Amino acid sequence: MPSRLRALFPILGLAVLTSLSGCNKNTETNPSIAGVAVGNKDFSVLEDAAVRGGVVALLSNRNPDDPQGNYTVFAPNNAAFARLGLYSATDLLVLNRDFLTGTLKYHVTGGTLAGSTLRAGVSSPSALGGIPRRIIERNGALYVNGARILATDIPASNGTVHAIDKVLLATGGNVVESALALTNKQVFVQPELTFLVEAVLYANLAGTLSSPGPFTVFAPNDAAFRNLLTQLQVAPGSPQGYVPADIRKLPVGTVTSVLLQHVIVHPSGPAGRFTPELPENGRAASAGGGAISFGPFTDGVLTVRATGNGPAVANMAIPDVQCTNGVVHVIDRVLLP
C-alpha cells in the first residue's frame, strides 16, 4: 500500500480483525472508521473509493452533530464492489466522482445504529441528503436495502461499522431522473440507459414514471436494447451500429407495451422492492397486464423473465438502486410480453 494512504488511516483494531478475517489480535484498538479500509485487505477498494470520493476526513473525524461524536457506516467489502466490476482504484475511474462521493455518503448515518437495533422494518436517514435505507429480513438473514449484513458492531473511535456484501446505491431522483443521470454521464463517465430513455420519451411514459408510484422497475441496459434490435432485424441508424433513435423505427404501441412489461406498481405499499423482497420462483403482475417471473434468490439477486422471452432469462447487472419513487434493477435483457 502506498505510504501516502497509510498516512491517511490508522490500522484496524481487534474487532475487525477477529470478526472479519480471523487474524491475530492487533495491539491498536478502536481506530477511526476510516481505519477499516486499511486494516483489512477485504476493504481495499473501499479505501480507494474513500480517497477518490473525498470522504476520508468525514470517516476519520468525530461527528459534530452527534453528542457522542459518532457515525454508523455500512461498509461494502471488496466482493461488493466486484459485483459492479470495480476491483481496484483504476476501475473506480469509470464512475463520476460526484456520484461516487454521494454513494459513499449513502452508506453513512449520524449517531450510533447498533446491531441490536437492526430489525426488519427499521429505517434510518443517510448522509446523502437524508435519503433513507431500510432493514429487511429474509430467510433469517438481515439486509440493508439489497445488501446482506455480514458483521455488525465493529467499534471505532468515531462510531461503529457494519460490513455488507453489496454497494448501496441511491440517486436522489425519481426513476426518470435517475435514468437521465446515467444517460448524461452523471453516474458512469460513459453514458448508459440511453436506449431506455429514448424509448420512454417515444412512448410518452416519462410523466407516469415520474409520479409517486412507488414502482419496481427492471431497466434494460443499452446492450440489451441493441440485442433486441438485432433480433428484430431493425436496420442500424449509424455505420457504427445502433443508436437510441432506432427505437423509433418500431411501432409506438409495441414500445409502450414492452416498457410497461418492465414495471411493477405498488399502490398499497410505501416503496419499491429490493431484491430480498422479490418472490423467489414466483411471479408479479406488470403494469402492462402481463407477468414477470423470478428465478431462485441466489447470492442476493434473482433472474427475471417474461412470457415473450421463452426460457431465456434476464440477469441483474446493477440491482437495488434506490430512487425517490421506487427501486430500479438494471438488467441485461429486454422483457417481452
Summary keywords:
alpha+beta; 337 residues; disordered N terminus; 2 domains; FAS1 domain; single chain
Characterization of this structure:
- The chain is α+β, with helices and mostly antiparallel strands and 337 residues long.
- The chain is 26% helix and 22% strand.
- The protein folds into 2 domains: 3-168, Roll (FAS1 domain); 175-331, FAS1 domain.
- The protein starts with a helix and ends in a 6-residue tail after the last strand.
Intertermini distance: 51 Å
Based on Cα principal axes, name the global outline.
Answer: globular
Structural class: alpha+beta
Return the domain count. Answer: 2
Q: What is the CATH architecture term of the largest domain?
A: Roll
Tell me how many strands there are: 15
In short:
This protein is α+β, with helices and mostly antiparallel strands. 26% of the residues lie in helices and 22% in strands.
Task: Summarize the helices and strands and which ones pair or pack.
Elements: H1 3-6, H2 14-21, H3 35-39, H4 44-53, H5 56-60, E1 71-76, H6 78-82, H7 97-105, E2 108-110, E3 123-125, E4 132-138, E5 141-144, E6 147-156, E7 159-164, E8 169-170, H8 175-183, H9 194-202, H10 206-209, E9 215-220, H11 222-231, H12 252-260, E10 263-265, E11 283-285, E12 291-294, E13 304-305, E14 316-323, E15 326-331
Helix pairs in contact: 4-7
